[in-house]
Amino acid sequence: MIIVDELKNRALILNSRPDGYPDESNFKLIEIDIPELNPGEFIVKILWLSVDPYMRGRMSDKKSYAPSVEIGDVMVGGAVGKIISSRNTEFEVGDLVEGRFGWQEYAISNGMNARKLTINESDISKALGALGMPGLTAYFGLFSLGRPIPNDTVVISAASGAVGAVVGQLAKLSGCKVVGIVGSDPKAMYIKNELNFDYVINYKKEDVCKRLLEICPNGIDIYFDNVGGEILEAVLENLAFRARIVVCGQIAQYNLANDEVAHGITNFRNILTNQATVEGFIVSRFASDFPQAYSFLERLYTDGKLKTKEDIIINLENTPEALLRVLTGKNFGKQIVQIV
Ligand SMILES: NC(=O)c1ccc[n+]([C@@H]2O[C@H](COP(=O)([O-])OP(=O)(O)OC[C@H]3O[C@@H](n4cnc5c(N)ncnc54)[C@H](OP(=O)(O)O)[C@@H]3O)[C@@H](O)[C@H]2O)c1
Known about the structure:
Layout lengths: L7 E7 L12 E7 L8 E9 L3 H6 L19 E8 L9 E4 L6 E4 L4 E3 L16 H14 L6 E5 L4 H12 L3 E6 L2 H10 L4 E4 L5 H8 L4 E6 L3 H8 L2 E9 L21 H5 L3 E4 L9 H13 L7 E5 L4 H10 L5 E5 L2
Parallel strand pairs: 8-9, 8-11, 9-10, 11-12, 12-13, 14-15
Antiparallel strand pairs: 1-2, 3-4, 3-6, 3-15, 4-5, 5-7
Helix pairs in contact: 2-3, 2-8, 5-6
């Protein structure tokens, strides 16, 4: 039996807003008491934290699709953990849950936006990656916006990452020719040899535009854009007729300093001439269909048809470093933090 009164919570709060890339000084570790539970609430002992590119946007006070984190507030983020005390009849002690619990060791929830996990305890960290928000993003971005048909040529940027690696595997299962763009040779080897992508481009070593013209002689039917910038511009040079550009992320722009200007796209005319569509999306748009997507992804995973790779950092205090890894491409696979 856990005596909750004796527990202390440690949390990372936002200490200041970054200008350009964030660093550790933007966060502060604090120790706080865990309050008494109100009826309907439960306490989660967090086991794994998710670290995602969108967190950079929450640190900024620029207008976006979701509110900024206020200075002094616990940093937002998805997490999975185990319930250790509950006054909620639908969530029991021992249940494994995923939710937006933030960068802390314990969280209090009323059950809103928390989901019970039915996967094996040894797999629960996957509920932050391929079997969680990034997997859903891949699923809805590819199937609802990209609408792949067999033999389509699908190009994916940040292709070894949490979202990109799932997009590529789903596109392969849909009978497409899949090209991944990544920023290192180990990432290139992984998506080619382990995930069976058809072609790989290392954008740090190769001329992306030239390689895409060689690899995709009939043009690109679907571009799943995770980065924007120069890679998007290179893709626009080789679109197929009625191509679909799925704008999922623009990570190349997330860390611009306040006085820096984003890379301007100069060849948007190719959208017109190829009668292509460009559509951005935020995965929450598809919330009503999440249950079917979770079942689909979990079934693929159980059947061995969806591979996952995790990049694990240990301890809450190293979470800022984990975020910087994601924003600089040092992560290799879904970035998560284990709370030990
Ligand atoms: N629309 C939505 O609802 C939604 C939901 C989730 C994620 N997203 C977006 O999806 C994208 C991928 O997210 P993720 O969680 O799967 O992250 P991730 O791919 O696991 O990690 C980010 C990767 O982005 C690449 N990168 C970083 N800086 C870059 C730069 N300046 N230029 C080009 N590539 C850069 C790096 O890979 P390389 O080493 O290969 O360059 C890095 O490993 C992000 O843009 C994110 O914001 C959108």
